[in-house]
Each structure stands twice: as C-alpha cells, then as structure tokens.
Amino acid sequence: MIELDNVRKSFGDVPVLKGISMFVQKGEAVCIIGPSGSGKSTILRCINGLIPVDEGFVRVGAHRVHEMRSEKQMRVLRHQVAMVFQQYNLFPHRTALENIMMAPIQVLGHDRAEVEERARKLLKKVRLSEKADSYPGQLSGGQQQRVAIARALAMQPEAILFDEVTAALDPETVKDVLFAIRELVEEGLTCILVTHEMKFAREVSQRVCFTDRGLIVESAPPAELFDNPRDPRTREFLGQVL
Ligand code: ADP
Ligand code: MG
C-alpha cells in the first residue's frame, strides 16, 4: 500500500531524510518512534505529498508520489492518504457533525443525506454520538481529536497517517483516543503512527521503525524491537523513554 525507497530530503542544505525506505502493507499498522527532530513528521509529509522529496521513490497505492507535480494531483492524494495532526484544527464555528461532513460534501461532492448518515456512524465509532451538535470549544482535547479522526475517516481514505495525535492531550483523555485508533487498526485500517506511546506501539502495531537523524536505524516487530533492540541508538532511546 505504501512504499518508500531511499527517500532523501533536505531543507536548504540541511539533510533531514538521508535515505528512508519502508513498506506498509494493506491493513498494517506501522509505528515510527524516535527522538525529536529525527525526521518522523517529514517522512509523513513526504508520503502524503505535503512536501516534495528530493530523491527516491514514494508510492501510495497506485499513486507515484515522487513524480507528482501538479497541485490537483496532490489534492487527490491527500484525500486518499489522510493525515491527523497533534493540532486537530477543527472549524470552531461548526459542530462536530458538520466538521465531519464538510469535506465529503465540498470536496467529493457527495450527497448531503448520505454524508450525514455516514458522519453519524463515524461519531458512534469514536464514541461521541451524543456530541454531534457540540462545538469544538465545548469538547475536551481528546474528544476534539476523536472528531478529527472521524473527519479523516469520512473521506474514506486508503490509509491514515497519525502524527503524535495524543502528544498535546491531557493524560486522562489520551486513552480514549488510543482506544479509538486501536479499534480502527483492528478493523484493518492501513496506517502509520508517529507516537511516543510505547505501550500502545507495542500492543497495536505490526512493526515499529526507530528513526534517528534522518535514517530508519532499526525496523522490527514490536516485541523484537522493544525487548531486543539491536542497534545501540535504539537501546539508548528506549532506555530514556521506557
Ligand atoms: P520529528 O517529527 O522527528 O520531530 P521533523 O521531521 O519535524 O522531526 O524535523 C526533522 C528536522 O527537519 C528538524 O531538524 C527540523 O527542524 C527540520 N525541518 C522540518 N521541517 C522543516 C522546514 N519546513 N524547514 C526547515 N527545516 C525543517
Ligand atoms: Mg514531528
């Protein structure tokens, strides 16, 4: 579903990705862990075409992202590979339900009644049915983030990229968001999750990639990577966070 081969990216003359290769199969959940500034968000941005790569190959389904030049192609891609950020960026003057409904109606031109039915199902899935008519300001951070996840799902994407979606939340709301993501993964959502939640990464993902200074230093099933890290940099990082 998602394939990167030897992806390189510099900002100015600072190399940020120095040859990233990874492969995510349909229905797989892959976590990316690693120190701040190691290139995790940049990897996600290269996958959904938010930034162009300098070198290498990026494919998502049938889309050859590294070859895309037009803004129109990129827009199509970004609907198929949704991204959920730490800042949920909901529209403050729209209810939870309306936030979920906007893009399918405005961008995909889908029928309003159908979109609403689907949006209500998605709210139910993230356990927020009773908040359909609430505005973002009336919701906790965790609830807003679950609306943002439902909004991403409403576009019926082929995959979702989660970039530290719980990093800014109060600890007591983190677990509801992780629970929602876990359910989606169990239903077969293809996703890449950048996260600092090591327990979650261990329990939910099929594979964990550890990044350091623009490289994937180690990639393995979670039990292997957490219990038996091979690279000294992985060991050092895990020693600090676990
Ligand atoms: P992470 O998500 O692992 O914390 P990022 O991918 O955000 O790391 O950033 C990797 C490096 O690239 C950092 O040193 C960061 O400062 C730099 N960087 C990221 N985006 C830009 C940008 N748009 N312009 C210049 N430097 C950037
Ligand atoms: Mg980041």
UniProtKB/TrEMBL annotation:
Job description of the protein: Involved in beta-(1-->2)glucan export. Transmembrane domains (TMD) form a pore in the inner membrane and the ATP-binding domain (NBD) is responsible for energy generation.
PROSITE patterns: ABC_TRANSPORTER_1 (PS00211), ABC_TRANSPORTER_2 (PS50893)
Organism whose genome encodes this protein: Bradyrhizobium barranii
Compartments, as annotated in UniProt: Cell membrane
Domain ABC transporter: 2-238
Protein's UniProt name: Amino acid ABC transporter ATP-binding protein
UniProt membrane topology term: Peripheral membrane protein
Domain of life the protein comes from: Bacteria
Family statement: Belongs to the ABC transporter superfamily.
